[in-house]
Q: What sequence folds into this?
């Protein structure tokens, strides 16, 4: 059964069938080979999406789209530019900082790419930065959308691996700040080396004026994250709060969202949510079938025999996840692999929350690596440039993320210190 499922999935990938359909078809083939009842497919697909924490996903997607249309993202850009935009290389640093702030509410890297990239990619090009480099920067910076909490992949990991989503959100702060800081340092040094960005301070608002204009936008992540960490509401409830706040600010305060805009916002959000939920349903069925076939136990025993220490286990897992992330969508990979790998990680004494950070950051790299990097495609769409022109400029950014990933993997305090402090562990 396992061989038939794997063969079907790889064949579908080779025929460029979508990941969700490929996973679903391979699971159905597994049901047929095992001579099981087809009602299993309906039952397990429903069970996969019938989970309260998953309700946060469509809300966070809707909140991100409301922020983009309602002028919140533009004001966040002006604020970030007022903080770091006055120095050489300040504009690319603004891109990283804005993505970090936007990610603290949207939970989606693709939403961050479109919302921030539509403003900053043209600005970077206008200030003399090469279009391919600006595109690579935006795609990489938007990766913070899945590392800085709240994060849709973290929700998926928590649901599939039965790990506290609240703890994952708290643990994501350290890795998110590390990656953001490393990217800002890199782009600053790179701009200095290349001689780019000497006029980045042009058209920059003063810090006071930018803060005043972005005040309502800046309060949004404080309310959402403060409510989660303070125990006022759950991550799912926080997503609904984010939608309500973005709607009120966009319609009544900034007044940039009209009645006609609501239809487009809702339609875009529904389509994005449906795609993710379809992937979750198919991945849940696939995970059920491979678990029934004994694949997780077999893989666990094999890893224990081959990778006999936590050091080599983490090294092997990082390499495998990096390759997997290049070909399989992040959410689907998490839903399929987390139930398999988390028990093995715990066997080696690795905290499941830290392993969640390793898995999320690693698979998020797949969002900016060819051939299926969704962030890369989104950034190329915004910049109106073909993918092959961006790959060369993308390599140094991938190197920065990989260096951060090694630190996150082998220095657990980066992920767990804040978690332990908040939850008194």
A:
């Amino acid at each position: 059964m396992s061989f038939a499922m794997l063969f079907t999935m790889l064949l579908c990938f080779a025929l460029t069938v979508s990941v969700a359909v490929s996973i679903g078809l391979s699971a159905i083939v597994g049901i047929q080979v095992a001579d099981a009842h087809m009602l299993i497919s309906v039952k397990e697909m429903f069970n996969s999406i019938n989970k309260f924490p998953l309700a946060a996903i469509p809300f966070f997607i809707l909140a991100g789209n409301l922020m983009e249309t309602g002028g919140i993202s533009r004001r966040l850009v002006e604020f970030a530019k007022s903080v770091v935009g006055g120095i050489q290389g300040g504009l690319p640093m603004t891109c990283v900082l804005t993505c970090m702030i936007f990610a603290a509410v949207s939970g989606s890297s693709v939403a961050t790419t479109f919302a921030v990239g539509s403003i900053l990619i043209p600005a970077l090009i206008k200030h003399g930065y090469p279009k391919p480099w600006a595109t690579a920067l935006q795609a990489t910076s938007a990766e913070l959308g899945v590392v800085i909490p709240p994060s849709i992949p973290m929700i998926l990991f928590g649901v599939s691996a039965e790990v506290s989503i609240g703890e994952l959100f708290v643990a994501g702060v350290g890795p998110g700040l590390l990656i953001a800081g490393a990217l800002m340092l890199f782009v600053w040094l790179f701009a200095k080396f290349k001689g780019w960005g000497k006029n980045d301070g042009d058209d920059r608002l003063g810090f006071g004026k930018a803060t005043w204009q972005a005040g309502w936008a800046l309060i949004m992540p404080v309310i959402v994250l403060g409510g989660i960490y303070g125990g006022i509401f759950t991550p799912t409830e926080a997503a609904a709060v984010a939608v309500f706040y973005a709607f009120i600010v966009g319609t009544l305060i900034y007044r940039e969202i009209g009645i006609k805009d609501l239809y487009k916002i809702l339609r875009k959000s529904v389509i994005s949510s449906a795609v993710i939920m379809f992937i979750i349903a198919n991945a849940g069925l696939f995970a059920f079938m491979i678990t029934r076939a004994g694949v997780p136990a077999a893989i666990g025993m094999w890893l224990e025999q081959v990778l006999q220490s936590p050091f080599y286990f983490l090294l092997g897992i990082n390499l495998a996840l990096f390759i997997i992330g290049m070909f399989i969508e992040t959410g689907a990979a998490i839903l399929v692999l987390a139930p398999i790998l988390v028990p093995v990680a715990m066997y080696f004494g690795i905290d499941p929350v830290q392993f969640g950070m390793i898995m999320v950051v690693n698979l998020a790299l797949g969002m900016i690596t060819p051939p299926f990097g969704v962030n890369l495609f989104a950034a190329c769409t915004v910049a109106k440039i073909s993918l092959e022109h961006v790959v060369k400029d993308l390599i140094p950014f991938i190197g920065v993320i990989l260096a951060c990933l090694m630190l996150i993997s082998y220095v657990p305090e980066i992920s767990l210190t804040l978690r332990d402090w908040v939850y008194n562990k």
